[in-house]
Amino acid sequence: MNYKLEVIAFTIESCLVIERAGAHRIELCDNPGEGGTTPSFGFLKLAREKTTIELYPMIRPRGGDFLYSDDEFELMKKDVLLCKEIGCDGIVIGLLNADGTVDKKRTAQLIELAYPLGVTFHRAFDRVRDGLEALETLIEIGGERVLTSGLTPNVTKGADYLTQLVKAADERIIIMPGSGVRSNNIAALARQTGAVEFHTSARTMIASQMNYLNAAMNEELKTVIADEEEIKKTLKELAKS
């Protein structure tokens, strides 16, 4: 089975770790506390210069919900064009209507604008009112894959629905389980769902290297980084399934 593993990078160091560990794709994001937003121009450019594996930046102008204003949509379009110019392999988007359906019109516009880059519809999908309806919408407008935890907070709770989504997709679009995917559950998840691509943060925290910290600030200043050994272990476990 030709499995693929995508890993989130919130730092340039994480990009290097992810490629070195043998993962297949980087989801490039800023702001882990917001669940990922659009990375800066400098981050995009350096990540592309420093890595050769697939690079899919997040196109999300802010945290919060996935109902965007006209100005936010214009910003997203400009970021998509920037990703094309830099030489990224794809983008990651997620736009919803207020009624919990996929924003078909504007999502289709971004897919067309991004071409020939691939397009992943991210976990905005887990906020839709009807997953199977949303899936058919994304297939109709040419989405490449869907990142989802099965309309639940994590893949463990959503495993049964993920299985249903993979069957419904019927190889017309890729269903990529994510949120809670780790080395200790990926093999079982692959066997149950039939999915062939998986998404993990494989994250760990590293302490600040500052020699001086102002104790009055009462903060640790830790940094999120990809865990190289966890990625390697996850790939090893996936290969066994």
List the helices and strands and how they pair.
Elements: E1 4-9, H1 12-21, E2 25-28, H2 41-50, E3 54-57, H3 70-86, E4 90-93, H4 104-114, E5 118-121, H5 131-140, E6 145-148, H6 155-169, E7 174-177, H7 186-193, E8 197-200, E9 203-206, E10 223-226, H8 228-240
Parallel strand pairs: 1-2, 1-8, 2-3, 4-5, 5-6, 6-7
Antiparallel strand pairs: 9-10
Helix pairs in contact: 1-8, 3-4
List keywords for this structure.
241 residues, 39% helix, alpha/beta, 10 strands, 4-stranded parallel sheet, TIM Barrel, globular
Report on this structure.
The chain is of the alpha/beta class. Helix 1 (12-21) runs parallel beside helix 8 (228-240) and helix 3 packs parallel to helix 4 (104-114). Helix content is 39%, strand content 17%. It has a single domain (4-240), classed as Copper homeostasis (CutC) domain (TIM Barrel), CATH 3.20.20.380. It has helices at residues 12-21, 41-50, 70-86, 104-114, 131-140, 155-169, 186-193, 228-240, and strands spanning 4-9, 25-28, 54-57, 90-93, 118-121, 145-148, 174-177, 197-200, 203-206, 223-226. The N and C termini lie close together (9 Å). A four-stranded parallel beta sheet has the order 3-2-1-8, with helices on one face. It has a four-stranded parallel beta sheet with strand order 4-5-6-7. A two-stranded antiparallel sheet has the order 9-10. The protein is globular. The chain contains eight helices and ten strands.
